[in-house]
Amino acid sequence: MKEYLDRVAKLYYEGEPVLTDDEFDALADKYDYKDVGHTITDGVPHMYSMYSLQKCFDIDSAPLSVLECVSTPKLDGAAVSLLYVNGELELALTRGDGIIGRDITDKMQQLVPNIIKYKGVVQITGEVVAPSSVLNSRNFASGSLGLKGLSGLEEFKARPLAFVAYDSSNLYDNYIEEMNWLQHGCGFNVVTLFDCTNYPTDGVVYRLWDGNKFRDLGHTSKHPRGAFALKEQKEGVVTKLLDVVWQVGKSGVVSPVAILEPVMVGDAVVGKATLHNIEYIRGLNLEIGCMVEIIRSGEIIPRIVKRAEDC
Questions:
Q1: Are 105 and 145 in contact (CB under 8 A)?
Q2: How many helices (H) and strands (E) does the chain have?
Q3: Of 2, 30, 34, 74, which is the active-site residue?
Q4: 2-36+234-307 CATH pick, 3.40.1110.10, 3.40.920.10, 3.40.50.150, 2.40.50.140
Q5: What are the sequence ranges of the domains in the chain?
Q6: Cα 272 vs. chain centroid, distance in angstroms?
Q7: 8 A C-beta contact, residue 11 and residue 19
Q8: Residue with the larger pLDDT of the pair 176 and 295
Q9: CB–CB of 75/127 below 8 Å?
Q10: Strands 162-168 and 189-190
Q11: Could you say which DSSP state residue 210 is in?
Q12: Which of 132, 183, 135, 128 is nearest to 156 (CA)?
């Protein structure tokens, strides 16, 4: 399983995730996977490191006072950094490992302002997202950034994507003012004002509104101390794996689908779930007739996260 999770982590940092965050977390917790990520050796450094957010599953045990925070939806897409020098977009990178990312400037030039009114150097970070109506919208957004060549760029232009900014290195003393500057002064969509109704989210972000306090708290090796993500702890439902069938998708890729004993998950009856690929099946040690735990990823797509212990 470690080798499988190593490969999954590598694909995530290359911008081509095969699992959602919740699915990866469930597997990492089950198999005590502690590795923090994949090292990119052929990328480009971010001007400022892109940190992940500390996760919290109970607001009563939040690491910060929520009364001092601004809350915003946690969009579920692909994180990107934009570097502007004297007002011109010079470099756009995937998040990568937070220190080094991959150059996607040609694609981001299609989604964001190429020129802003700002003298000096500023890094703006945000999320590339696709509408929830798009199947596997998170993977769709991430995969779009990996399209290659002129044909890939043309396809990227035609895809229903948006960039939503949530931070900048301009370091305003007030987070709301910083977001207002990005939207009204620079022309970006911003997370405090963006209508997320039709886009996938996977929690709520709480961030100190006071920029000075945020900076004073600093960072750990992984997370800013002045922000956290409140996430819902999804409880899986156990049912029986009846069969596995192989289906050909629109792209021509053949993938396995689990046929399940129908069971209620949330407000829907689930009888099928994606299995991604043969490595995923082997990694979970699945067999016809065994009991499996499933969740509805993003409250929409059923996924098997583990083999139940009482098989």
A1: no
A2: 8, 16
A3: 74
A4: 2.40.50.140
A5: 2-36+234-307, 44-230
A6: 24
A7: no
A8: 176
A9: yes
A10: parallel
A11: B
A12: 128
Domain 44-230 in CATH 3.30.470.30? The answer is yes
As given in the structure block, the two tokens for residue 35 are 């590795």
Kindly indicate the confidence band of residue 17, based on its pLDDT and cuts at 50, 70 and 90: low
Q: In sequence order, what are the beta bridge partners of 162? A: 129
Residue 112 CB partners (closer than 8 Å, separation 6+): 82, 89, 92, 163, 188
Percent of the chain at pLDDT > 70 equals 82
- The closest of 260, 221, 203 to 21, measured between CA atoms, is 203
CB-count burial class (<10 Å; 0-12, 13-18, 19+) for 299: middle
Comparing CA positions, the residue from 102, 97, 199, 198 lying closest to residue 147 is: 102
pLDDT of residue 84: 95
What burial class does residue 27 get, using C-beta atoms within 10 Å of its C-beta: 0-12 exposed, 13-18 middle, 19+ buried?
A: buried
- pLDDT tier for residue 71 given thresholds of 50, 70 and 90: very high
**Model pTM score:** 0.68
Residues 133-186: tens digit of each pLDDT: 998 788 889 889 989 889 999 999 999 999 999 999 977 899 999 999 999 999
272-286 pLDDT, tens digit each: 988 878 888 888 889
Task: Characterise 218 by phi-psi region: left (phi > 0), alpha (psi -120 to 50), beta (else).
Answer: left
Mean predicted lDDT score pLDDT of the chain: 85
Rounded (10°) angle between helices 2-13 and 21-30: 150
**Active-site residue 213, yes or no?**
no
